[in-house]
Write a structure and sequence with these properties.
Blueprint (H helix, E strand, L loop, with lengths): L2 H9 L5 H19 L5 H15 L4 H36 L1 H13 L4 H12 L5 H19 L3 H16 L6 H10 L3 H27 L13 H6 L7 H23 L7 H8 L1 H12 L8 H34 L2 H7 L8 H19 L2 H12 L11 H16 L7 H10 L3 H29 L2
Length: 461
């Protein structure tokens, strides 16, 4: 759909508060269909996407193409990343590399602090890496630690997912915060510094929520009766430490180097190679090739069956994640974003009120269409011309404005967010449990981040 066609379609679609009601109905339908009717999430998401299209009076000739385009766009962004990451995870599990990593990490932090370890690892990883990719990459380690420490998978899943999420929307060089800082004219160095401060309480809140709720949630991965010692006996010999970590560490470093190069606008020798190897799909491809060094032998069992199992495991995740992208695309094609923007039309004076308004707009956009990056970019573009009227003009004000936008872009991750499905599917969580864990966890993170932003604003003024 071209921009001209989209504008023409929006002109004849439903406008105003009724759109919010339609979105709420779609969310309630997905919860009811998956939890009560036991409809597969893939079907529930697609049905919801069609329902939103028809109820919003989207021209019928556009509904199908928008749904297909949303599915395809998401596959373009993270499809191969999921496939490569799943293959890496399968090989690491079957070769014993994941267990070796678990032993190394536990030797450093101790068994009882495994969730803290994953929260810290996620917090650092997501600064240069998208949280979706980071969760896929770190899942083998997370699962192995859960088994080794005898900690419910839900605790480990929420600790990792919220650790990743804390820096994803607040700390450059992740693209969303960079774009927001650029749109409002904030100093990137100051945004990074403030973002690191604001994201720490967010990550700690997510870790607290993991402990608070995780013990009451059962994951499909907790149902195995195999103990860690029994699991370890399945392997004749565990791989070495370096060989075990390389398939995960190398992709993360490559992506990080590329992010730094883009952030610093490095154009010197080797810049093209840095960007090439640091593109997530290329980095994960390299990680997958490196994981082949873990194979005990090169034969049909390993090269065909192990890799084939990883591909099969990725299929369901791809379908559900793509269907979530379809729903997000339909919502984005409705006038709901335009309606939310009109809510900011009034003049608001006073810095605190301005930050509140910014947070609310970003949260509404995030909740409505699912993408944190879209919420960051859209909100920052919208409010940039209003900043003087909102009383936000100093360098610190602008940095805190980015924090308020980022806090709103956290609030909340649910069924129209691909990250919701990555976390739930890779962690074996039921949809209702994923709402309790992931959605509520991101709500708490967003609120704590915003409160921290307001406290900093008061202290620094």
């Amino acid at each position: 759909m071209t921009p001209e066609q989209l504008a023409a379609a929006k002109a004849v679609m439903v406008h105003g508060p009724l759109l919010i009601i339609i979105v709420v109905l779609a969310i309630l339908f997905i919860i009811f269909a998956t939890a009560k009717l036991k409809i597969h999430p893939f079907m529930a998401l697609l049905l919801a996407a069609y329902g939103v299209g028809f109820l919003s009076r989207m021209p019928v000739e556009f509904i199908g193409p928008v749904i297909a385009q949303g599915f395809g766009n998401l596959m373009t962004n993270i499809g191969l990343v999921i496939v490569f990451g799943t293959i890496i995870g399968t090989i690491m599990e079957k070769s014993g590399a994941a267990l070796k990593m678990a032993e190394v990490v536990l030797d450093v932090v101790g068994i009882k602090r495994s969730p803290l370890a994953m929260s810290i690892i996620g917090y650092i990883t997501s600064i240069p890496v998208f949280c979706d990719s980071g969760y896929v990459i770190l899942t083998p380690l997370n699962k192995a630690l859960a088994k080794r420490a005898k900690i419910p998978m839900a605790i480990m899943a929420v600790a990792l997912s919220t650790g990743l999420y804390a820096t994803h929307t607040l700390v450059p060089p992740t693209p969303g915060p960079i774009a927001a800082a650029g749109n409002v004219g904030a100093d990137l160095g100051l945004v990074i510094l403030v973002g690191m401060v604001v994201s720490i309480p967010a990550a700690l809140t997510g870790l607290w929520w993991a402990y608070r709720l995780g013990r009451n949630i059962e994951s499909e991965m907790d149902q195995t009766n195999i103990s860690y010692d029994e699991l370890k006996k399945q392997f004749h010999k565990l791989p070495g430490t370096v060989k075990s970590f390389i398939p995960i560490v190398v992709p993360i470093l490559l992506i990080a180097f590329a992010s730094v190069a883009k952030f610093t606008e490095y154009a010197g020798p080797g810049s093209e190679f840095i960007v090439f190897f640091g593109t997530p799909v290329n980095a994960l491809m390299i990680g997958m090739l490196l994981s082949l060094t873990l194979l005990p032998r090169f034969d049909e069992e390993t090269l065909m069956n192990w890799v084939g199992q990883g591909i099969k495991d990725s299929a369901i995740i791809l379908l559900i994640t793509g269907a979530g992208g379809s729903l997000g695309a339909v919502l984005s094609a409705t006038p709901i974003s335009d309606y939310i923007k009109t809510l900011a039309g009034g003049n608001v004076s006073g810095g605190i009120f301005g930050l509140i308004l910014v947070f609310v707009i970003a949260a509404l956009l995030k909740t409505a269409q699912g993408s944190s990056t879209v919420a960051l970019v859209t909100t920052s573009s919208l409010i940039a011309p209003m900043l003087p009227q909102l009383g936000l003009t100093s360098p610190m004000d602008l940095a805190l404005t980015v924090m308020a936008i980022g806090a709103g872009a956290m609030t909340v991750s649910h069924v129209n967010d691909s990250y919701f499905w990555v976390v739930s599917q890779f962690s074996g969580l039921k949809i209702t449990d994923a709402y309790k864990a992931q959605t509520m966890g991101t709500l708490l993170e967003g609120l704590v981040s915003f409160v921290t932003t307001l406290i900093l604003f008061v202290i620094l003024h």
